[in-house]
Design goal:
about 325 residues, mainly alpha, 13 helices
Length: about 325
């Protein structure tokens, strides 16, 4: 039975879209059901758990053991799922809400969400704006020295798994995944349009880190599938590209448009990088405290560890 399931997952081009569609339906239908009051962010945890199980069933041929990193993965996931968004909203929202008022004499608010079009139009517009913003922010995080110092910890993982999807410095994570939604909310998009769009971007980000042997097929040229995203995390940057490839987070058509898409093929199947890791060879960081503090220059050995022992007399 398990052999047949592995064969289906590894070979079927229908598995990935069915998996995505199923979870998207669950997330949208369950909104307002009260589950969040019982277990906040249960949907994110459910998707991570399902993909972890999938990774056990259909193992990827270049998989690298990650069990020794579980504490770092759990802490980083908890921080970025439960803390980063709330903290960013509290710190950034007042600034982006009142700065336009200070500079231009008017806020970012639109008088009514109806001015931005009907709901069926706002949802794809939100998806396009979010994916466009994330693409360019992601490129900036690779080309700017300070932002790369923050972002590089995400690239030091030696394998892509659901468990390390959220292994990222909180500032790095907020810039790429939180700020854009605050901006769109202030612009005046219908909250229900955001409610429909956010689950799609959320599922896509986690699925792209799936460490199972799943095939994307034609989806590889529209969405960021695991086969596409592994090249972004390749230990060796493909020739002709300065920093990385495949910067898209949800969709890969921005990469195709701006010349950063990379998915080589051998006959009918996409090739995959043999090694995942930081391009300059930096090792994976096991300590979340170092991941959090080193980029900000705040990590130092505690002073009493450096004191010479006191000699009696």
């Amino acid at each position: 039975m398990q052999t047949k399931m592995v064969s289906y997952i590894s070979g079927s081009l229908l598995f990935l879209p069915l998996f995505f569609a199923s979870f998207y339906a669950v997330l949208v239908v369950s909104r307002g059901s009260g589950l969040d009051q019982w277990l906040p962010k249960w949907d994110t945890l459910l998707i991570i758990g399902a993909i972890v199980l999938l990774e056990r069933i259909a193992r990827y041929r270049y998989a690298v053991p990650q069990r020794h990193m579980w504490r770092r993965d759990v802490i980083s996931t908890f921080i970025n799922v439960y803390v980063t968004g709330a903290a960013t909203s509290a710190l950034v929202l007042p600034v982006i809400a009142f700065l336009p008022e200070l500079l231009f004499g008017r806020g970012l608010f639109v008088a009514s969400p109806d001015q931005l079009g009907p709901l069926w139009l706002q949802v794809p517009i939100v998806l396009l704006l979010v994916s466009f913003y994330k693409y360019w922010m992601h490129r900036l995080q690779h080309s700017n020295a300070f932002l790369w110092e923050l972002h590089s910890y995400h690239h030091r993982v030696t394998d892509l798994t659901a468990a390390n999807t959220f292994v990222s410095h909180p500032i790095d994570f907020a810039l790429r995944n939180v700020v854009i939604y605050l901006l769109l909310g202030l612009v005046g998009f219908d909250p229900f349009a955001l409610l429909l769009a956010i689950p799609a971007t959320q599922i896509s980000g986690i699925v792209s880190h799936c460490g199972a042997d799943v095939k994307g097929g034609l989806l590889n040229y529209v969405f960021v599938t695991p086969e596409v995203h592994r090249w972004h995390h390749a230990a060796k940057t493909p020739a002709g590209h300065k920093y990385a490839v495949n910067y898209g987070v949800e969709f890969c058509f921005w990469d195709r448009l701006f010349g950063t898409f990379h998915l080589p093929r051998t006959k009918a199947h996409p090739e995959q990088p043999e090694q995942i890791g930081e391009p300059t060879g930096l090792p994976d960081e096991r300590s979340y405290l170092r991941l959090l503090l080193v980029p900000l220059g705040l990590y130092r050995p505690l002073p009493w560890f450096n004191r010479a022992p006191r000699v009696p007399g």
